[in-house]
Amino acid sequence: MKILGISCFYHDSAATIIIDNEIVAAVQEERFTREKHTPEFPSNAIKFCLEESGLKIEELDSVVFYDKPIVKFERLLSTFYQVAPKGLIPFIKSIPIWLKEKLFLRKLIYDNLKEIEPSLKKKDLNLLFTEHHISHAASAFYPSNFKESAILTIDGVGEWCTASICKGEDKDIQILKELHFPHSVGLLYSAFTYYLGFRVNSGEYKLMGLAPYGIEDLEETKLFIEKIKSEVVDIKEDGSIFLNQKYFKYTYGLKMIKENSFKSLFGFHTRKEEEEISQTHCNMALAIQMVTEEIVIKMVREAKKLTNSNNLCLSGGVALNCVANGKIEELGIFDNIYIQPASGDAGGSLGAALSINHMYFDSERHYSEEYDLMKGSYLGPYFSNKEIIITNKKYKANYEYVESFEELSETVARLISEGNVIGWFQGRSEFGPRALGNRSILADPRNPEMKKNLI
Ligand SMILES: [Fe+2]
Questions:
Q1: Which residues pair with 314 in a beta bridge?
Q2: What is the pTM of this model?
Q3: E-assigned strands of 213-278?
Q4: Ligand 1 centre from 202 Cα, in Å?
Q5: Is 419 left (phi over 0), alpha (psi -120 to 50) or beta?
Q6: C-alpha of residue 3 to centroid of ligand 1, in Å
Q7: Fewer beta carbons below 10 Å: N end or C end of the chain?
């Protein structure tokens, strides 16, 4: 089976190509256009996937989109109906985009693919759609090598679902439990990301990075946690949550939160992006991080209870919260944990392709103890030494060619110890937001000034 998976039009556009169970290539569009988290149709990423596989679009068994836009539109209409007349302006603004693009996605995708391959005929395009959270679940379960596993997906929102517990068994994934919009761990975290002055859908990692600067024992931190749990989010024993809409605007507004309600509850206004970060901001970051961990751990316990599996797969944007992932590991209730490195929506392109491969086309799974089906997540473009040398010459770069890897490592280690910052580039680029050693910035963590140099 030759399948192209696509995720786009919201954020983190990407494409993945699989051939007979092998993930041949996967890459985000931002790596070509340099626009971080771009929602644009991933034409460059698709071109790369086709080149890498040596295939034309008409030769593919299927092209799969990572969610179901009609169901998403139903959520938009239903939410508007519940909150009307509030939200009329954003609703009116979004409707033309939906009518012009998202509802006619089949045509839009075909038109974009035809630009890549002008000879493409409609009859040669087998376009399929998967559910958003099935895409997330599949992106973790199928590459995991587990024959059976509990699967937990948590993100902002897909169609209706914001978190799911599934059971994966060989080729099949069964949904056991779902949490639905507007109650969402991802949106809760994004709301506090906004409150603390970072960008929603991209600054969440900054909030996570700020949390360790908070002081757990301070009265202020304890009070923040207590207020979040008593006023903002009701956490049930099974990890499901109820978000008090008195504090949120995302169901009808262009902003995440009701800023005045947040201010009167926590005593400080929404931080502006350029505003200095205070200890109070750090304490709040720690508070929401701890509440998030509490919810995620309850969900993990529920996943164990429902599946009784020793294996756990994690995916969805919240699975990029590596601090929470560490807490899950410390729990020790699963022997093996697999986390999809591209857990955000980019990974949806991979999961969409894999889910259609196994659940629709019924392809057998290939298990391997010897190699990683994700290939270490090194699935993107690469450049040969020859290409690098030609480019260096073209731009008259001052460079030195070192043949031996040992000598190169020693030189780089010395340069780092002397306080230099190194851009480390080798092999294929990583799929997902994490630098895993092929496109990394290396610096000396012992130097307290280094953080400033890196910014
Ligand atoms: Fe998602």
A1: 152, 339
A2: 0.91
A3: 233-235, 241-243
A4: 13
A5: left
A6: 20
A7: C
